[in-house]
């Protein structure tokens, strides 16, 4: 992975080296920490199906994972505002270790509530991990922020390999407890991520960052912010909605767990591999255009899934879904960077993530019941309405490029 961003010659070499080191560390941490989410998605519905009192609750552990993400975002933003992002990173990694250990105890004791508690802490960790992208933007000059943001997201490519392979090679090691060794590995990987994050050198906080800034209600009324949140919500909602149901749908279709693991591996790789280019594409064509392409690709993934229930259909659906999420979510994140002053960043970014993850919880809760009651095709078809709404929002929210950024810097709202 190349972290040698082109920089102006007048910038201090020390600052440039620090920026590149921070982005590299955050990308490595993203690769390690991203395996946490992959493990939960690969095992959550399957273990839930084994432990839940009814089949309709099979995807509840994944839904609880999303609840953990939603509930953590605003507190994480408050901690980052008060004590700095590094404190938030280490608290998140600690939650990742707890997630693996609690899930291990749940499997050993056949406890469904305990397993849900483990996935909750996994969600807390995942919410903190998603703030890595904004931390990378904090470390870079304004003109390099989309590149830094996408470079860290590119670390997820390796998470796409680490997570599924961790599941595949450990799930049967602790017989007869399926996935017990996997959750031990999940805790170890989270601890290693904490070691990497401890070396990140972020810009120092000042009194301005603690006390200044406009009220969130003023910022949230900006059309550009509203559009960014809508696109972020829809992209993450549908990605989670379909990815939560896919492993269980493959099982119900008689496909082996190894095929589901490999499908998730390609899905996560597809989620993050485009990040090597997404920042450049945003810089060249604009965030809105990249978001639109991403939403169209998510629609294509649903269409492919409706063509059949063979392994190739599931894999193609998950791969297109991942690419579409990458374009639409990173594009929406780049829009958020245009909507706040430096001293407002932690509060605004955490508000955005709270809305995204909070709404995503709805899709996660619905996916299991809809899959059990109506089947995989219905789950796919229901994704059309949110996609259409987001595309119409992109068309309807007209704005002049660059205007929002200038107004935000002066403390005005659009």
TrEMBL record:
- Which InterPro entries does the record match to this protein? MFS (IPR011701), MFS_dom (IPR020846), MFS_trans_sf (IPR036259)
Is Ligase given among the entry's keywords? Answer: no
Q: Which Gene3D superfamilies match?
A: MFS general substrate transporter like domains
State the Pfam families in the record.
MFS_1
Query: What residues form the membrane-spanning segments?
Result: 26-48, 60-80, 87-106, 112-136, 148-167, 173-200, 225-244, 264-282, 289-309, 315-339, 351-370, 376-397
Q: Which GO terms describe its molecular function?
A: transmembrane transporter activity
Domain annotation Major facilitator superfamily (MFS) profile: ranges: 224-414
Domain of life where this protein originates: Bacteria
Provide the alphabetized UniProt keywords: Membrane, Transmembrane, Transmembrane helix
Q: Which PROSITE patterns match?
A: MFS
Q: Could you tell me which PANTHER family the record lists for this protein?
A: MAJOR FACILITATOR SUPERFAMILY PROTEIN, MFS PERMEASE
Kindly provide the name given to this protein in its UniProt entry. Answer: MFS transporter
**Protein source organism:** Bradyrhizobium pachyrhizi
